[in-house]
Amino acid sequence: MTSSTALWYASRATGVVALILLTVVFAAGIGISRQVRIPGLPRFAVTDLHRNLSLLAVAFVAVHVISAVLDTFVSIPVLSAVIPFASGYERFWLGLGAVCFDLMLAMIVTSLVRGRLNRHAWLAVHLTAYLSWPVAFLHSIYSSGDLRHGVLLELSLGCAAIVGAAVTWRLVSVARRLPRAQRVAAQLAAAQLAAAQTTRTLPPRTAR
Description:
By secondary structure, the protein is mainly α. 73% of the residues lie in helices and 0% in strands. It has one domain (6-184).
């Protein structure tokens, strides 16, 4: 590595670290939504860990973007960091990176002002931000060839496996709870029907 390639290496390295952090944040977010506990940590500490990892991921993404823009090997406009598909170099794949960055910024900003937002509005933005991982993954794989061979390919596949396992676990846990919810609803409906039939069959009260 020389002074002329330092920014290139910095951009690639911070991009890889950001992908790893986003993977951990994604999986941790699913775990928190299912009230998963980490041994030795109270629930509020798990939530704080998730938030701090999210901020750290944003910091690495910011360094990744800045180093890529400052690198003179290719010309990447500054505005292309936040305006998708504004770069003439690798327009689509760099555009996906801008989409990921915008989603992360929306998640961070709305989390900071959560107390002033409607809960449903905050939740909608927060759930949309989960799209940042698959978008970031595609950006990482196709914007350069670094993650398409060797150890970095294995690392990217490992990240994909973690996210896939987390999503599968979430879907299975929801599917297991669905029949129980349906049984409860059926039992309540049956109880209401029985109560209505009992009321109809009771003899009318006579006035004293």
